[in-house]
Amino acid sequence: MRALAVLALLVGGPGLLVASAHEGHALSDLERAATAPGALSPFDLAALGLLVLAAVLYARGLRRLRRMGASVPRGETWAMVAGLVTMAVAILPPLDGLALLRFHAHMVQHELMMLVGAPLLMAGRPLPVLLHGLGARLRPVAARALQARGTSGAWALLTTPVVAWTLHGLAIWGWHLPVFYDAAVGNEALHALQHACFVGTSVLFWWGMLHGRYGRAGYGAAVFFVFTTAVHTGILGAILTFAGVPLYPAYLAPAARLGIDPLGDQQVAGLLMWVAAGFVFTLLGLGLFAAWLGESARRTRARVTSLARRVPMALIAAGVALTLSACAHDADVRMAEQLTGGDMARGKAALTRYGCDTCHTIPGVLTADATVGPPLSRLAMRTYLAGRLENTPGNLVRWIREPRRVDPQTAMPDTGVTERDGRDIAAYLYTLR
Ligand code: HEC
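Above: the input record for the complex with heme C. Below: its predicted structure, written as tokens.
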């Protein structure tokens, strides 16, 4: 599904650019002045700086991960690169300068940010790689800040589909009210704020659509929210197309100086939002829809085979488990810490510090959803560790500290875990039942 969406974006992005390539005449003096590199505002430079920083961190993170023997799916890396390039094209000349002279160039700039750049960046799942790019000292600090209950709670709330959908819609409609739009065209700081709102809400929106978990609704909800966004932004595009008068006075003066018809300019902008953006939305929506069909087919198969056999057992077990689990959790933690002599809370933090989360999915650790190594869920219940060692506290600590001593051929690297950290990590893993 991600491949399909990325393909859609790679077709859609240049499509938007081609659609905007106006009349093919040479640039006028006015346009040449507006698109000179010297015309970049401090805000543009700051945004560019952020993109460069992200690119550098990402490259460093990739290199570190590779050295550790972990890999990032190639599609995700390409999506990230394409996303960064798209954002750079959107904020650099010539587009950035033309955006202040021609309304439809400004529309292309915004659509590139919201509908191509943001979803590509989100499809690239850059966070774990960026964190690695921070290096051994800053990474744990950043990881801890991201995993703090406040941060992950706020992120979960903001990327809930309804919330992200509403914020994104409000940003688009609000900023297209003529008072606000004109103010943004006339003032660099407001212009930067406008772009921050567009990019920020579209990042929330696309993260929610691509990676958010919304229980059973799954991709179905995402399809609904993507299509309804296509519909409401399409309506806004149609309003711009059919308005009989120029709606944004800020573009009257530049149009007069360029000798173009402001109403025609506005109609092209409206069509870009309505038809061209609608096309990209539709492709993305179809990608999600295909993923939805695939997923529900998988779920149905799994449900039919497993439920038929397990319903009665599962009901009894669930009843017993529910009554026991409340009191059992504390006992589990105490038991895990006694067995290992470690501290599970410190162990949880150490998991990100040593980069275990780049290879393993570990319940309770937000950044750990990797699939290089086996998931560490229910580790306390295993008979064997890595299929080789009997699952005892001593063996677990040994494996965590020096897996290559146990088996030189194993793909899991020695990460220099200290004795104490080994015990702490083992304590945390033994709480996973
Ligand atoms: C570069 C990727 C990578 C990193 C980093 C990594 N592991 Fe692993 N881990 C693996 C792989 C691959 C296996 C399977 C090894 C095997 O079977 O030979 C594994 C196996 C394990 C197992 C046994 C799992 C089982 O199902 O029996 C444990 C426990 C484990 N790792 C814990 C850790 C901890 C704790 C860290 C951090 C200190 C860590 N790993 C870091 C790749 C990694």
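Notes for the reader.
The two ends are 33 Å apart (CA to CA).
Residues 68-70, 354-356, 358-360, 372-374, 376, 379, 382, 385-387, 399-400, 410-413, 415, 417, 425 surround heme C (CB under 6 Å).
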